[in-house]
Amino acid sequence: MTRTNSTSIHSQPASRLQRLLPRHVPLHILLPSLVVAAAMLVPLVYLGLRAFEADSATLVDLVFRPRNLQLLINTLALAAGVVVLTTVMAFPLAWLVTRTDIRFKRALTIMGVIPLAVPGYVMAYALIGLGGNYGVLAQLTGIQLPRIQGYVGATLALSLYTFPYLFLNLRTALSGLDGNLEESARSLGYSQGEILRKVTLPHLMPSLMAGWLVITLYVLGDFGAVALMRYEAFSYAIYTQYSGAFDRIYAAWLAIMLLVVAASFVMLDSLVLRRKLARVGTGVARPLRPTPLGRARWLAWPYLIVLFGVSIGLPVMILGYWLLLAPPDMSFFARVPGTFLRSAGAALPAALLAAAFALPLAFLTVRYRSPFSTLIERSAYIGYALPPLALGLAMVFFSLRTAPFLYQTLALLIITWAMASLALALGPIRNSLLQTRPSMEQAAHSLGHGPVSTFIHVIFPRLRRGILAGVVLVFVLCMKELPITFLLAPTGYTTLAVTVFTRTSEGMLAEAAPFAAAIVVFSSLSVGLLLTKEGK
Amino acid sequence: MRKTLFTATAVATTLLAAPLASAASLTLYSGRGESMVEPIVKQFEKDTGISVQVRYGDTAQLAVLLQEEGDRSPADLYWGQDAGAMGAISQAGLLAELPADIYEGLPTIYTSETGSWVAASGRARVVAYSPERVDEGELPESVFDLTDERYEGRVGWAPTNGSFQSFITAMRLEHGEERTREWLEGMRDNDAVTFRNNSTQVQGIADGEIDFGLVNNYYLPRFQASDEEFPVEQAFFAEGDIGNLVNVAGIAVVASSDNQEEAVEFIRYLLSPAAQQYFTTNVYEYPVTRGVIQNPLLEDSDRLLEVAPEIDLDDLEDLEGTLNLLRDVGLL
User: Concatenated DSSP letters for A242-310?
Assistant: First the structure.
């Protein structure tokens, strides 16, 4: 992390440009990073081209109307609510499974990721279906809840399936934290509270920020749950423009406006994030001995039960309810495995591709810091922050003009999914890299290991958790992704999410249930499988 | 780096394995759901030997996709859920003209003046209501009655829904811009409850959130098919009222298609008695041709033609005007 200083000292006589460029970046890191940045330019160019087609009168009417300001305020309020609520959900959970002696840690960890697998519309339906006098709760127990909707509904729904982003980030950080740090602090006479505030939290900041950023950007672009909850956010205006007006020009303007908002969050994040993180001494990082929970477990378990009861129990219950209400034909179940294979067959390569590109990007930004590398790394957020429909259309435009043979092939779907989710993989990988010291790599190099060998023997074992977390995040997102699939999947390549959509959109909830359940079950199983592979 | 290699191989393999299109194969972009489209497509393939690849998606998103693709589109056919979408792509010049004889014997409300698309099935706008909380006498004669005080806070609508927007376009044509604006503002000030779509409205009536909903006719029968005691009913407004607008799912041949003949054959197939019977029996929509056995859960087809307002569906193209109006009133 001291590289920035040394760079500026050495480069005093050099030109401005040289100062911007990172020094001695190996090609196998620079090249993939440049590929990412170039790919992210595609949607920007596309939106720019479309935006230029606008006629000024309509533009003023639509883009600079006061209502957009209201939508923007709504969106920011939603993002703030979700950030607070997800932190309340994720932080204690991450703490419990990494730092205490609570039982069933592995199961709790897996359960902490499962809500990610719940498609937004299923979570929204579950919450909406709960209340009202013909709602599930009223029918089963006679208790009537008011309908959950609007700001409260949207905040709840979004928080319930995005908090695992923060949980995974925090868990990676907490378990990678050098135990010696806290023990030194304790030996210096710091109290438990002071240690948390002065030692632990600052080291968790990058992970907290990464999680918050990913969640905020998700909230900015989400349409599904927000629309079902009838909360008017900015993404809603974009969707209406495409879907209500069949318009691509003013929608492009709105998407650019959304990108500007997203970019300000991304920049804010990089401003706060630049702090020095370290370990103590030269030894191996030592995990902390778990804190005994003692009587606190009477608080911990009820908390866990409520958290998982709502985030997992509720959607599972609503799916079961749909199934019981009108048991679909057995033939529907028979089609689930094939549809799952199509979903996973595209989502897994996309997850690996995203992780493969996130790795060099993380190295560039952590080991070769410069304004240039930060810019490149931050560009990865473009794909994630864009409304998926806009990204999908950009790729339609791009591939039909430059590589028509790629159009509506599995390869293009995988590439686009990877572009949309690269930022998700980047967070945990970057953060685990921040916790390993460059001296390990340097030592390996000096012992004669090449980059490949160093990666396999030295870096990968240390980054395994981060890489796995990244792969899981991308995989699960792609399993439930819709708009990009609509536009870019090979014709006839019907995924689980598409099957669920085409049935719920025609009001056939029961027929949609087995496929929606399959998304949740198979994604959870994959999550479990990956997490058990991560070792201790 | 091993990972990069692996992914590269994976990508290359999938590229090579990409399906190769054969000569007698059609590509259908369907805004209609798989569960209703697939049985018909299977039967068509069996009867004609022409294979059909279906891309399922959202009606509007597929319409935007067709525009983005332009004359490079791989699609031969587009099957959209509402007349508005059909009008939009027809106006963008993306559709081929259909042979005139396709329209023979169809009631005029199911044909297109531009001759570039045809209705495959019809549905009507109705008012759904709660029999528990609504007396017979309270049922509105006209959709314009709903701005009355006694309906305050009791009516649901879905301003972002395509069918609703087509209905507003029809109202503008029939009653003019001013009256429509007054009605929208009246509804808004009467605390009409905004929903995302039709089925959530029907659910909302059952849940007790609203007493009336402006919906399409086929949602309620689906709820009833799975729950006989579902506490919602529906009715038409008085004869000729704009609230009974009949909208359609339309099918069209994409202009850039190389398989025009086979595509037209598919359209003829959708208008055949077997397909029409399927639409009304299994999907609770109205057949566009005669000689189909009535679905007992639906009002009589002839009754539908009686109550339906006379609107040329081609004129429903001016969605932009409707959206501007809805935005002006603050509903979008």
Answer: HHHH--SHHHHHHHHHHHHHHHHHHHHHHHHH------SSSS---PPPPBP-GGGHHHHHHHHHHHHII
